[in-house]
Amino acid sequence: MFTSTRKPPVSNAPTGSPITLRGLSARTRWLLATAVLVALLVAWLVFRPNTKVAQVVTAQRADLVQTVVATGRVSAVERVDVGSEVTATVVRVAVREGDRVAKGTALIQLSDTEARAALAQTEAALAEARARQTQLQTVGAPVADAALAQAQANHTAAQAEHRRATELVAQGFYSQQKADDTRRALDVATGVLAAARLQAQAQQPQGAEVLLAATRTTQATAAVEAARARLARLTLTSPIDAVVLTRQTEPGNLAQPGKVLLTLASTAGLRIDAGVDEKHLSLMRSGLAARAVADAYPAQAFEASLNWVSPAVDAARGTVDVRLAVAQPPAFLRPDMTVSVEMTVGKQAQALVVDAGAVRGMDTPNPWALRLVDGKATRTALTLGLRGTGAVEVTAGLAEGDLVIPSTEKVADGDRVKPTQAPPVPMSMGMGR
Length: 433
Hints:
By secondary structure, this protein is an alpha+beta fold. Helices cover 31% and strands 34% of the residues. The protein has 3 domains: 49-76 and 269-433, Efflux pump adaptor protein, beta barrel domain (Elongation Factor Tu (Ef-tu), domain 3), CATH 2.40.30.170; 79-111 and 234-265, CATH 2.40.50.100; 114-231.
């Protein structure tokens, strides 16, 4: 059996001398170089400044229109419930829902037979009173004057007869009885004269008979007017130019005070009643132009204008009630329709605007933004103008073309940032409800 012993190779290098790259293979030298490069890269990544990648938006100029949007309902300027003042049977209803009626148009006829009879009776009484007044003027006064003249003549004759009789009795031609008889005749004539004078005075324009006749005529006239008014209450008419909204009675029904028979809405004008979020109260002012769209006709917008703002705030809803006038309501517009209104509260041509999401502390006294300056996020104070849900006007703090970091990016003041452009901001300036 044979064995062999393999001796290790003998190195020619001196003992204790360092190893050099010349003594290494090409592969080994390549691996060492790669390791050095990796180590340098890691060191650069560890010790380099902290740089973050973030989206940015650009401050740019654009025509800006700021609006406030609200939902409301169409209301009539006047709304009237028609009812009866008396209890009576409905004889005829002349209108139905949707009919347009002019002011004074007869709507409902109630039973009026008794009222017409009462009117005829009072008219007869008035005719009698007027005839009596005419009789006093044409007959009574002349007869009274003639009676007065006759009484005066009789009184004068009685006076003369009594004087002669008294003289003859004194001379002894007649007895005392004769003087007494003439005295009685004179007293009677005096009484008749006094009565004739009173009767004549009563027939004068300010006399008692004339005043009494005039009073009777006035009373009869008032009775006729009252009867006519009672009769008129039995014909219910429209107090305004209107459209009939509801009909709640039919012929044969009993109308009673307090019971609504018809409901009318004025056609003279329509308005929109809406509720606006109280945060927009400072923007509300009379005369604001608005565009309205009915939910039932979304393609047919119409014009309106703000003319009233409630002095109170609805605490439960956090809204302020407003009213908008509709000067020329379209034919399809009806009371109680639901509409959306967009009120223009501000306009600015070529305003400097920025994405609303890039403005921080917008509702505070000191809004600010992170502006990108030489690759570094820098806190910048802003002064704001018109604002909306999509964009905000910046009146101070930014210049056109400045890059601003939105609040959604995790970047702090002083961070170094590598920017990427965010999607463009839509210029829809509606501010919501």
